Amino acid sequence: MTTSSDLDMDSSHLAFEDSGGSGRPVILLPGAGDLRTENRFLAAMLTDAGFRTIEADLPGHGRSPIANAYGVQETAAALLGLMGELDAGPAVVVANSFAPAAVVWAATEHPDRVGAVVAISPHFTADATPKGRAINAATSLLLRGPWAASIWERLYRSWYKGRTPEDLEGEVAGIREMMSDPARRRAVRETLTADRNGVAERMTLFDKPALIVFGAVDDHFPDPAEEAHQVAAQLGAEVLIVDGAGHYPHVERPDVVGPAVIEFLGRLPR
């Protein structure tokens, strides 16, 4: 039976939807500025394959409570709290963009709670160059006020480089609703611009099975394939490059990513 929890009064909690069942738990986290439904295709495939899937919103996003801070450590703590709340550890965590950094942090903070990681289009480092700082400043400025939803929608749509799902308009409508709330706009801004202090050190301590997934034409990275292999070398991970896909390969090509994730999970020790 599917269960869910929305708008818990404790700001450290995450809103979630849990498929239930006795299969290996898999927690799915979206990227910054997105909703837990980003993972709808993967969650459905994993549930059908017998896994217990738990789709969660990031802190301050979607239906999760507003929090005081939205950095990597805070997100890691919220993830660990969700695992404890649902007795869902050790879990496999599938995470996109900003979220993998928090997952690696959680895995090194409490190795007993994370069994493996699937990192999709991960941003493990923040761009500390003058250009990177300028982009962060512009992001923080633009994603304020009533125009923020329209700006974020244009950016979000531009990151789909391959197939766009038939239900994309519904997803965009949900994102626009989230961005209409000033408190949630702040959550998105601060998550997008969060530093990665300490993440590189955590990556050297990480020792879990991992799969790194990148879209071949993801314009978040100068060379997505090179980025994928560099990250994989740091984490001792496997790599999947999805031809023609952008920042959301699991949404653009679930027919490729879904079976690859299921095959990876099937090789994990019990």
Characteristic key phrases:
Rossmann fold; 11 helices; single chain; about 270 residues
Read across the widest sheet, the strand sequence of neighbours is: 1-2-4-3-5-6-7-8
Total separate domains: 1
The count of helical stretches stands at 11
What's the name of the CATH homologous superfamily?
Answer: Alpha/Beta hydrolase fold, catalytic domain
C-alpha geometry: globular
CATH architecture: 3-Layer(aba) Sandwich
Detail the topology: elements first, then pairings.
Elements (H helix, E strand, L loop, with lengths): L2 E3 L10 E3 L6 E5 L10 H9 L3 E5 L15 H15 L4 E6 L2 H11 L4 E7 L9 H13 L5 H11 L9 H12 L2 H11 L6 H7 L4 E6 L8 H12 L2 E5 L6 H4 L1 H13 L4
Parallel strand pairs: 3-4, 3-5, 5-6, 6-7, 7-8
Antiparallel strand pairs: 1-2, 2-4
